[in-house]
Specification:
The chain has 355 residues and is an alpha/beta fold. It folds into two domains: 8-274, Spore Coat Polysaccharide Biosynthesis Protein SpsA, Chain A; 279-354, no CATH class. It has eleven helices and 17 strands. The radius of gyration is 21 Å and the shape is globular.
Length: 355
């Protein structure tokens, strides 16, 4: 499919979650972890947009505390960025994307906005959806990619598709956004059909995003504009002005723009996506052995089924245990029942309180 010019990938890398503790910490959050093998999710995201016929060099928005990690991991996979914009503080996704939209060379060019801590197994299906969405985005629509639900998940927001967009065989108007539902409501939506998980991946023109920001959150646009006008640049690193950026309202792109703008489209896609939001979700998407164990690292299991074992430094041996999450990192070992990984945060809080 022809398109006018290459897309600028915008990779959001400012997250600092601890839901995958003890591996994930504020100094090395999950996007920089080698959860699945030799490459981190940050590196896999960069490789997702390596096709130079389709993509420009990526524009990365992240935290100054992770700049060495970003550079090191990009070097490992032989990738270069057009710029690394270092947020002076965390203000959520809408301001982060605004910095990128203000930095692109061509305001009418397309931006593909991707979190760096998600997994996409079927790159071909994902790229096909991006290609199919190009004419819609070029005509001024803000496109979001909706993931085909595999069950009544309560940890994701949902998007309801509306009418097909004229001239497009794959994109629909976004009828409404639904917050993380109860399981009962999720089952009702799945039975009704036409609902998709909100993956937080977007395709739009930079100027279309900035125009929507001016209309719905002008204070944010002013703050981000001032931050970029007063930026400091060192090689590929861009340092927006701290005082200006910290005055921007902290808001997600969904709340600030997507739920309010008129021309919002959804392109359904089923690319084997996961936000790897917990150890349970890592288990769900991982390959299993003959006893349904997902094992990363050295482990020997006897009479043990349905376990997630993640240990690169220590050799783990289990006998007769079922449905456990066992994770080691340095001098820390975490064990909890599968299905309880939402309680990792409680462990971290308790440990930090005792330090």
């Amino acid at each position: 499919m022809a398109h006018t010019s290459p897309i600028t990938p915008v990779i959001l890398s400012g997250g600092s979650g601890t839901r995958l503790w003890p591996l994930s910490t504020s100094t090395r959050p999950k996007q920089f972890l080698n959860l699945f093998g030799p490459l981190s999710m940050f590196q896999l995201t960069i490789q997702r947009c390596a096709d130079e016929t389709l993509f420009r060099k990526p524009l990365i928005v992240g935290s100054a505390r992770h700049v060495d990690l970003m550079r090191e991991q990009m070097q490992e996979v032989g990738a270069e960025s057009s710029a690394i914009i270092l947020e002076p503080c965390a203000r959520n996704t809408a301001p982060a994307i605004a910095l990128a939209a203000l930095a692109v060379e061509n305001p009418t060019g397309l931006m593909l906005v991707m979190p760096s801590d998600h997994i996409i197994k079927n790159i071909a299906a994902f790229q096909k959806a991006v290609l199919a969405s190009i004419p819609v985005a070029e005509s001024g629509w803000l496109v979001t990619f909706g993931i085909e639900p595999t069950g009544p998940a309560t940890g994701y927001g949902y998007i309801q598709q509306g009418d097909a967009i004229h001239g497009s065989s794959s994109s629909f108007s976004a009828k409404r956004f639904v917050e993380k539902p109860t399981e009962e409501n999720a089952q009702i939506m799945l039975a009704e059909g036409g609902y998709h998980w909100n993956a937080g991946i977007f395709l739009f023109r930079a100027d279309a995003y900035l125009a929507a920001l001016e209309k719905f959150s002008s204070e944010m646009l002013v703050a981000c504009g001032a931050a970029m006008n007063q930026k400091r640049v060192e090689n590929e690193l861009c340092f927006p002005d701290s005082d200006s950026f910290s005055s921007a309202p902290s808001d997600s792109i969904d709340y600030a723009i997507m739920e309010r703008a008129e021309k919002v489209a959804v392109t359904p896609v089923n690319p084997g996506w996961s936000d790897v939001g917990s150890w349970d979700s890592l288990f769900d998407i991982s390959d299993k052995d003959g006893q349904s164990n997902a094992i990363f690292g050295e482990a020997m299991t006897i009479g043990s089924t349905g376990n997630l074992i993640h240990s690169q430094e220590l050799e783990i041996a289990t006998y007769g245990v079922e449905n456990l999450i066992i994770v080691t990192h340095n001098n820390k070992v975490m064990i909890l029942p599968r299905g309880q990984s939402q309680n990792v945060k409680k462990l971290v809080q308790k440990l930090e309180g005792e330090d």
